[in-house]
Amino acid sequence: MFKTILAAIDGSAATERLLMYMLHFGKTEQATLYIVHAYQLPSHYAANEGYAELVETYRRVAAGVVQDARAFLQEANIEAVGEAIEGPPAEVILREAERIGADLILIGSRNPTQVSELLLGSVSQQVLNAARVPVLVIP
Predict the structure, then answer these.
(1) CA Rg, the chain, in Å?
(2) Distance CA 62, CA 83 (A)
(3) If pLDDT is split at 50, 70 and 90, which confidence band does 58 have?
C-alpha cells in the first residue's frame, strides 16, 4: 500500500515508539523507509566564541540520532536511509516528504509544554496542517 515512508524523529521517547511502527511497516510493506531528523542551530549564540564547536556538536549529535535509529532497524533486518538536516523542523519534514515522494509521514507527538506551543502549534500539528499525504501521529 505504501511505497515510500518518511519517519520524522527527534531522539525523544516518542522516537522509540515511532521506531516500533517503522519495524511494523518494514515487515509488512514493500516500502522504502526514510528517516529525517530536523534540528535548528542556536543562532543567538553565533557571536560568541566557541560557536563553531557548538555547531559541530549539534551536527554530530543530530547525525547520531539518525544512525542510532538506522542501527535499531538494521538489527531487525530492516533497511532505512536517512539524514539529519538543519532547518525549521516542520519545513524540513514537509520538504523532504515532497522531495522523496513519500506517501506516508510518521511523526511523534508530545504534549505542548509552553504557551507558545499551544498558540503556534507543535511540529506535528504544523505537518498535519500542511502535508499533502497521510500523516500518522504517534503519541
Answers:
(1) 15
(2) 9
(3) very high
Identify which of 123, 97, 110, 77 has the alpha carbon closest to the alpha carbon of residue 36: 97
- Beta-carbon contacts of 32 under 8 Å, excluding residues fewer than 6 positions away, are 3, 4, 5, 81, 100
Chain length of the chain:
139
38-50 mean pLDDT: 92
| pLDDT mean over 61-83 | 97
CA dihedral 17, 130, 91, 22 (to 10 degrees): 20
> What pTM value is reported for the model?
0.90
The C-alpha cell of 21 is what? 511502527
Cell of 117: 506551543
Q: Which amino acid is at 10?
A: D
Domains of the chain: 4-138 (3.40.50.620)
